[in-house]
Amino acid sequence: MYNKKKLGSVIKSHREAMGLTQSQLAEGLFVSFQAVSAWERGKTPPDIENICRIAEFFGVSIDSLVEQTARSYFIGVDSSGSKTEMVLFSDKGEINRKLKLEPANPNDIGVKACCEALSVGIDTLVASGCKVESAFLGITGGFSGDNAQKINKNLSSRYSGKGITIYNGNDCVNLLACGDDPLNSIALVAGTGSTVFVRKAGIDYRLGGWGYLFDKTGSRYDIGCEAVRAVLGQLDGFGEKTLITEILERELGTDIWSAIPDLYAKGKKHITSLSKTVFEAERLGDKVASKILCDNIDRLGLIIKTARQRFGIDAEIVAKGSLFDEPRFLELLTERTGETFRLPELPPIYGACVECLRLNGITADKEFFEKFALDYKTKTFV
Fold first, then answer.
1. Distance from first CA to last CA of the chain, Å, rounded?
2. What does pTM read for this prediction?
3. Are 142 and 206 in contact (CB under 8 A)?
4. DSSP three-state, residue 127
């Protein structure tokens, strides 16, 4: 596997060193000017026969010509609601270095702080000495409002002088890239927040993902909030008696009334963690907990159904998120939606790397997957 963009750059470099125009090179190789132009722009790679001609024309060996494109290095980033993972990898699937950092959702910490946090990681990876060509950043909150444009502008200005092209999007793109068809896929993220993403003919669309203040899409945060509401409803006398009360207060270490100030102070992350109390109560047969889970799953089902109808896509749903750590969640989700969900063998950071390659005109093949999987499982995060 070679990088067609890099090969195009090598061809251009040899041509310019000989003082030739694209037309003159085309004449010497008995091909069209358009073919040479496409090669140099990395749009269409030369076939084997033309690679042989190019090597002979420039007076270099085929091995030498291709070897110059044999290693290209890139950065893949997956920043979810709970953490940020970064890897420096080659187009052969080799992982040079792995980093694990704090989450960098621009909706939570602001675009400036998000860019600063990501820059720390990128700088650390670049310092390893490998010449990085580009980075793809899949960031939770990366598509909200004009975040994508602001993040790209900020980071591109930092790294363009180092020859690094910055591509950025939402972390759901990382999941979409794990689908069987890189141009047509559907993905579900169900964790701190929940979002459905669709890629149709290479164009990405989002349903949900509006942030915890406005979303009502069956996320861990939603379930955690409803756990607290159920307990408060029981306390006030209008809600049903529920096992969630005992379990939640045990988790909080105090009664719900005394815990309210702390819940407000600690905010989203703390409330999200309380979702586990609903799963525990549901396992014990609690009807209130069962209704909370079913209502939230039905909201997710509605978004999935809407995505199917709106975009006419029938691809298998690729899924990720901390809710899938709960076996009961996947069981109920499958039962109530009638859908099949595939949890990728590798985490979403793999999708970020596949997307980075795709944007550079490279297809991640079986060998890439196998090498990446081996390195990811055996190399330690810094």
1. 29
2. 0.66
3. no
4. coil
